[in-house]
């Protein structure tokens, strides 16, 4: 067992730059080789594992890595998915971070008349977040069909695959460009730092204890 602390971060996407910037601001130095999955810190016994954001919750919950920087949207979807399949879904939330803000929303084509939530009844809704969408539909007594897509959700209505979509919105540019209008916000998200729920070695725990106040300091300075 290595005593290097492993942290999973998103390889490329909305959280990548700010995840690395946060670690850098905390004094954790490393250089990224784009072709490599793992980046070794040159200042601390820390390894960064650069993966798809969707893989981060599982890697942390299964103890493959010690820490993960991930969006709450991806985290909650993975947690619900594990609960649905009777798999242990435990982790320790360490810090909510001040980046990666977005919302998971239901949007419909501009030309569709939409008065209220009840209009979703009978619709096919395309999403990459089936668990979060199903929970929302159930909580609100809506009978809709969930169409699971791993990407290009915003083109599903035009392609005739769905009547509405449920996807992440940050600036709204993607919806706008695809003739869609945001109607219901079902989940609000930001980045989170999470830890595996097992007890770590003293060395690793000491490193986390040193890292957390630095993160707090960086976040405080941003305010
Ligand atoms: C999300 C979403 C939209 C886009 C919305 O994808 O799927 O494509 O961001 O952002 P906007 O409102 O600013 O246009 P993203 O690439 O962040 O996530 P993913 O890579 O996990 O699909
Ligand atoms: Zn993703
Ligand atoms: Mg996308």
TrEMBL record:
GO term, biological process aspect, one: L-histidine biosynthetic process
Top class in the EC scheme: transferase
Chief place of localization: cytoplasm
Endpoints of the signal sequence: none
Record-level Gene Ontology MF annotations: ATP binding; ATP phosphoribosyltransferase activity; magnesium ion binding
Cellular localisation: Cytoplasm
GO cellular component, one term: cytoplasm
Positions in coiled-coil regions: none
Cofactors: Mg(2+)
Catalytic activity annotation: 1-(5-phospho-beta-D-ribosyl)-ATP + diphosphate = 5-phospho-alpha-D-ribose 1-diphosphate + ATP
Superkingdom field: Bacteria
ATP-binding recorded as keyword: yes
Pathway(s) this gene product operates in, as recorded in its UniProt entry: Amino-acid biosynthesis; L-histidine biosynthesis; L-histidine from 5-phospho-alpha-D-ribose 1-diphosphate: step 1/9
Keywords from the UniProt entry: Amino-acid biosynthesis, ATP-binding, Cytoplasm, Glycosyltransferase, Histidine biosynthesis, Magnesium, Metal-binding, Nucleotide-binding, Transferase
Family, as annotated: Belongs to the ATP phosphoribosyltransferase family. Long subfamily.
Function (record text): Catalyzes the condensation of ATP and 5-phosphoribose 1-diphosphate to form N'-(5'-phosphoribosyl)-ATP (PR-ATP). Has a crucial role in the pathway because the rate of histidine biosynthesis seems to be controlled primarily by regulation of HisG enzymatic activity.
The protein's name: ATP phosphoribosyltransferase
Gene that produces this protein: hisG
């Amino acid at each position: 067992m290595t005593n290097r602390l492993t942290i999973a971060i998103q390889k490329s996407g909305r959280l990548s730059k700010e995840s690395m910037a946060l670690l850098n601001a905390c004094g954790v130095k490393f250089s990224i080789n784009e072709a490599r999955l793992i980046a070794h810190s040159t200042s601390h016994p820390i390894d960064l594992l650069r993966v798809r954001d969707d893989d981060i919750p599982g890697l942390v919950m299964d103890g493959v890595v010690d820490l993960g920087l991930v969006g709450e949207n991806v985290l909650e979807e993975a947690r619900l998915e594990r609960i649905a399949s009777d798999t242990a879904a435990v982790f320790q939330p360490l810090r909510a971070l001040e980046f990666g803000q977005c919302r998971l929303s239901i949007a419909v084509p501009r030309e569709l008349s939409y008065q209220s939530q009840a209009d979703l009844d009978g619709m096919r809704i395309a999403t990459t977040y089936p668990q979060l969408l199903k929970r929302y539909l159930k909580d609100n007594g809506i009978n809709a069909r969930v169409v699971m897509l791993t990407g290009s959700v915003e083109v599903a209505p035009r392609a005739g695959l769905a009547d509405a979509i449920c996807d992440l919105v940050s600036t709204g540019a993607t919806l706008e460009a695809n003739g869609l209008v945001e109607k219901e916000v079902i989940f609000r998200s930001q980045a989170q730092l999470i830890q595996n729920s097992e007890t770590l070695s003293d060395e690793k725990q000491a490193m986390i204890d040193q890292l957390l106040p630095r993160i707090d300091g960086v976040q405080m300075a941003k305010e």
